[in-house]
Amino acid sequence: MRQANDNARVGIFQSGGLSALAVGVWLHELSTPTRHYIADIGQAAPAEVAALASSLRQFGAEAVVMDLRSSIAAVASDLLRYRACHDGGYWNTTGAARFVLVSEVAPVMRADGCRTLAHGCVGGGNDQRRFARYGAQVAPELPIIEPWTNARALERFPDRETMLAAVVEHGLHLDPGSSAERSTDANLAGISHESAELEDLETPVTRLDPRWSKWPGQTPDEPEIVTVTFRDGRVADVNGSGPEPVEWMTRANEIGARHGVWLRDVVERRIIGTVCRGIYEAPGLELLGRAWTRLLQASLDAASRELYDRMATVLGAAMYEARWLEPAAQAAREAIDRLVGEVGGSVTLSVHRGVVQGERMKVAGGVVRQTRFGSGGNRWSQAAAVQTAVQTAVQTGKGQRDA
């Protein structure tokens, strides 16, 4: 790791979280030329992102804002298509954000003349490894500064209380979900919550103050009907949103959050082999995941669905462990693409107080379906469309033989 005071410009991934801002203070105190790159990935309202950039400039730092909402929405579409979930079935939104940040921001840092990269991820954590792995693949010529493995940084900031004091002293705009005792990691696809209190497995999940969502008991009295349309294995519309991923992801988030569809309370197995509790808030993906799973069940035969689920497990681990660009993950995506590339239809759901109930569904193609009561109730019969196709094939073959 290159030292932080060698007068080479450092590009820092700046989230507005407490540890990232403290890294900015540390580099400033070392008189290290630093440029802060703030990625708008839907973590907060635009005014919050602008306030962070303004506070950094008043502090005397260079700050660049990059709108990456389309990029994070595209990756959220991948998470859904491939069902790339981790322990307990929660959506890999933090891992996805690290992939987007390094892939999109590192090339800009390099073009701007930065010679090293820095981030505020805690030492020994998942994100430290994610930045390292993606950095080695996307920008291998740029060394990474990992402050919370650096003795001088730890001496300056031995704990989060010290960090908070410095950030407040310099008037830097702190993300509202970050403090000495807790932190959130947010983007358009979802939010992770961590705190000293929540790390205790005896703490009730109801102690959490969700960022977007309501608890089921706080939701509207009446259910809401949601229709999700899929085309070629991807979301094409959510209640009139249109096919643009930022739009349908935003619409799904609003509906899911409003009706209490969001919670995952997980004791997850981490990259380094330990376990740690985390609370995850992904209302849009939770809602869309119900619709997508239902459509898959009606569209794939048994062997295809089994293979899909196996590849989804591979991809869930790949996104979590920052191996999304590696050959195994690429092969798994190609396999699923073959299976779901033509899957389409619409799924209508009823959403009410945290419960998502299937109402009706239209499927384009799909597996052979049978009916019983539609055939008189005393025998099973294939769907009429399938019978017609079989009869047509038989007649075509007979005609060819006669000719």
UniProtKB/TrEMBL annotation:
Domain (Arginosuccinate synthase-like N-terminal): residue spans on this chain: 14-151
Keyword Lipoprotein appears in the UniProt entry: no
Domain of life assignment: Bacteria
Pfam families tied to this protein: Arginosuc_syn_C (PF20979), Arginosuc_synth (PF00764)
InterPro entries the record matches: Arginosuc_syn_C (IPR048268), Arginosuc_syn_N (IPR048267), Arginosuc_synth (IPR001518)
Domain called Arginosuccinate synthase C-terminal: residue spans: 183-356
Keyword set, alphabetical order: ATP-binding, Ligase, Nucleotide-binding
Protein name according to UniProt: Argininosuccinate synthase domain-containing protein
